[in-house]
């Protein structure tokens, strides 16, 4: 699990097949560790001299932007949280729901405004003032649009993540709030089991 607070901007040294090698200033990374790469939870399979190697599956390749990475690409990195850590962002699993496209980036001096378009698989779980992970960054949705959403970002976050390198038309990994998905699942389950007999037993009929 992660918090969505980016710890380092890493650099892709090599990407081939289902393996990616990333250079980072982060220490304490060991084989078997989970690490968030642009919001995607990957497992470290090799560590050597400021670099780590991770594998990713065909599903990850299909539903995230990892396949678009190339040598020297910059990536957001976050190590998995420890039980003693403060949860400064929000609960992020590293299981990306899909990809959104940046439609607009505007510098408004005290903050940056970014407008994104996305599919129903993402927008269904978006609520105004709700949480979302954008390339692994914990952010708050300022408003929900017809075919996407709008976010405002403070300079501290913008300048210390790969958002500073993004431009209109770029794609980003999106993970919606996990709580919303669980609420939907449990609500649908209970709704599907409602019958006339249950309503009578509980005094509704």
UniProtKB/TrEMBL annotation:
<keyword id="KW-0808">Transferase</keyword>
<feature type="repeat" description="Lumazine-binding">
    <location>
        <begin position="91"/>
        <end position="187"/>
    </location>
</feature>
<keyword id="KW-0677">Repeat</keyword>
<dbReference type="GO" id="GO:0004746">
    <property type="term" value="F:riboflavin synthase activity"/>
</dbReference>
<dbReference type="InterPro" id="IPR026017">
    <property type="entry name" value="Lumazine-bd_dom"/>
</dbReference>
<dbReference type="Pfam" id="PF00677">
    <property type="entry name" value="Lum_binding"/>
</dbReference>
<feature type="domain" description="Lumazine-binding">
    <location>
        <begin position="1"/>
        <end position="90"/>
    </location>
</feature>
<comment type="pathway">
    <text>Cofactor biosynthesis; riboflavin biosynthesis; riboflavin from 2-hydroxy-3-oxobutyl phosphate and 5-amino-6-(D-ribitylamino)uracil: step 2/2.</text>
</comment>
<dbReference type="GO" id="GO:0009231">
    <property type="term" value="P:riboflavin biosynthetic process"/>
</dbReference>
<comment type="function">
    <text>Catalyzes the dismutation of two molecules of 6,7-dimethyl-8-ribityllumazine, resulting in the formation of riboflavin and 5-amino-6-(D-ribitylamino)uracil.</text>
</comment>
<protein>
    <recommendedName>
        <fullName>Riboflavin synthase</fullName>
        <ecNumber>2.5.1.9</ecNumber>
    </recommendedName>
</protein>
<dbReference type="InterPro" id="IPR001783">
    <property type="entry name" value="Lumazine-bd"/>
</dbReference>
<dbReference type="InterPro" id="IPR017938">
    <property type="entry name" value="Riboflavin_synthase-like_b-brl"/>
</dbReference>
<feature type="domain" description="Lumazine-binding">
    <location>
        <begin position="91"/>
        <end position="187"/>
    </location>
</feature>
<dbReference type="InterPro" id="IPR023366">
    <property type="entry name" value="ATP_synth_asu-like_sf"/>
</dbReference>
<feature type="repeat" description="Lumazine-binding">
    <location>
        <begin position="1"/>
        <end position="90"/>
    </location>
</feature>
<keyword id="KW-0686">Riboflavin biosynthesis</keyword>
């Amino acid at each position: 699990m992660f918090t969505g607070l980016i710890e380092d901007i890493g650099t892709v040294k090599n990407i081939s097949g289902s393996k990616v090698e990333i250079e980072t200033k982060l220490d304490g990374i060991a084989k078997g560790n989970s690490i968030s790469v642009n919001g995607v939870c990957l497992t470290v399979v090799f560590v050597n001299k400021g670099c780590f190697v991770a594998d990713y599956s065909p599903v990850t390749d299909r539903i995230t932007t990892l396949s678009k990475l190339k040598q020297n690409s910059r990536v957001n990195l976050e190590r998995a949280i420890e039980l003693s850590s403060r949860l400064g962002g929000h609960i992020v699993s590293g299981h990306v729901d899909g990809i959104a496209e940046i439609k607009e980036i505007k510098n408004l001096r005290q903050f940056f405004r970014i407008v994104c378009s996305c599919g129903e698989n993402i927008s269904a779980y978006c609520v105004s003032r709700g949480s979302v992970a954008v390339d692994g960054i914990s952010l708050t949705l300022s408003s929900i649009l017809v075919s996407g959403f709008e976010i405002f970002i403070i300079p501290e976050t913008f300048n210390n993540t790969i958002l500073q390198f993004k431009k209109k038309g770029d794609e980003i990994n999106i993970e919606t709030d996990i709580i919303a998905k669980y609420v939907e699942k449990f609500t649908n389950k209970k709704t599907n089991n409602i019958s006339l007999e249950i309503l009578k037993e509980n005094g509704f009929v």
